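Ticket closed. Logging final result for AIFM3 factor.
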Amino acid sequence: ISSVPAVEVKIEVVIPEKERSKEDMSPNGKASPLIYKVNGTARHYHLEEHPIASNPYHNPKDVVEASVCHVKDLENGQMREVDLGCGKALLIKEGGEFHAVGHKCPHYGAPLVKGVLSKGRVRCPWHGACFNISTGDIEDFPGLDSLPRFQVKIEKEKVYIRASKQALQTQRRTKMMAKCISLSNYNLSSTNVLIIGAGAAGLVCAETLRQEGFSDRIVMCTMDRHLPYDRPKLSKSMDSHPEQIALRPKEFFRTYDIEVLTEMQVAAMDIKNKTALFKDGFKMEYNKLLIATGNTPKALSCKGKEVENVFNIRTPEDANRVVKLATSKNVVIVGASFLGMEVAAYLTERAHSVSVVELEEVPFKKFFGERVGRAVMKMFESNRVKFYMQTEVSELREQEGKLKEVVLKSGKVLRADVCVVGVGAVPATGFLKQSGINIDSKGFIVVNKMMQTNIPGVFAAGDAVTFPLALRNNKKVNVPHWQMAHMHGRCFSVPSLCNSKLLMEKSGLELDPDKLLLNPLLLYLPGHGEGFDDVVIQGDLDELKFVAFYTKSDEVVAVASMNYDPIVSKVAEVLAAGRTIRKRDVE
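Final structure:
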């Protein structure tokens, strides 16, 4: 948004690269496609012989080598962005050695030179993804890809980098993966691993299985009509098409034999017979099951809730439709949630008016406290967003079946051509009620620290689970965040599904929920700040350049910042090292 501080656009509103090809890849001549019908639609799965990733230096014409600096230009612990003529690299010096990797975070494109370098890895300044400087491998989330690694050599006191032109342009690297070699052992209605849900947790689980050599059948199923996509971007880049926000292109799934069944809703589970029962009557047997269904948006319960042009943002089609209807019209957003405020930010330059209705006194009070919430509210008000706080909707009025007015319990009547509802969500676990899987009173799947449910061979991950948080005395918590879904999918579901401790040892990762980020809008926190009792703020709230330390008793439990990079990444490194930050340290 041009009139909102640049951090809004720079950090969040970044449209990913378009899918490389919109055409279906033809099957390899040496492999036959698997075809069967689900919901009347033919499903094709091809076995490709050559992985997407390849030797970056196989073609001499694709290689560039350049002198980038003198050996004395960088001190230990320093990073520099260097230009090789056809692209840039990040040059790093640590422990007396030089390393070169991609200079942009593969997640949302943040400049890593502004990140934090510590103990052989660089942490992204925006969302905290972490990369090994020797290998380029991703070691902390969010994100799916690693960084390309480039060759460094020293000649006559000069530092040279040798790199693939393609890698310099893409700035990302997909790890080598195995492929399914045992499809003949299964009929079309059975699989070794069944993943219900195609969000971050499910996709990371499937990818990591392949990365670590798992060569048996993997099937993902989703109610969505699209392959896995970056759902948080639905409220950040609302006019994006599905292929623009796809997490992986279509050929990726074919190449690595990760089967995705779209528009497939699981209606019930037969745990005794290890079978998923789908709404259309289709059944699929499994050996191991991962449930990663996420959540379902809450709807309004007021009079007139069925009128047209009232939306929960759940799909790309929802977001696209809202943008089209809102252009030069009156928009009412119910709920000053992360989603609601992001939609308000996106539409303020497009709509005639944007109004936000919220029960609390200020936005984000529960997450960031009153002072930070009020500063954010002030920024939005300066960009023509009108707030109606401490009230709620009593009625939606229509004219010829379409929304005309939103009536508040305060008595205020708002003109509205479109309404977006962002009042929270509930776990999408209704199909499990009679399954025998342990569900708590709020509908969350209860798992242990290995993401195992009470049923052997059944695991759960992501927004739909509660899990023990070690640094909160193993209190069961639910953390509905993109980064946590990545961590669940990688660190615990995979070793559990594979029944292999070796995989966890190879990954070098441990689930540390106290490093998670909470930043869908402006700010983010490495820590689980549930229940803070004070906030220490440094910087200027009015100028929206600040860092807020959230404390409980004497300990800093979370940090939020705005226009203060890379402070939060620095804090994340401290927490990752197992150190505690005291209140007196930040006052």
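The first helix runs from residue 6 to 11. No further action required.
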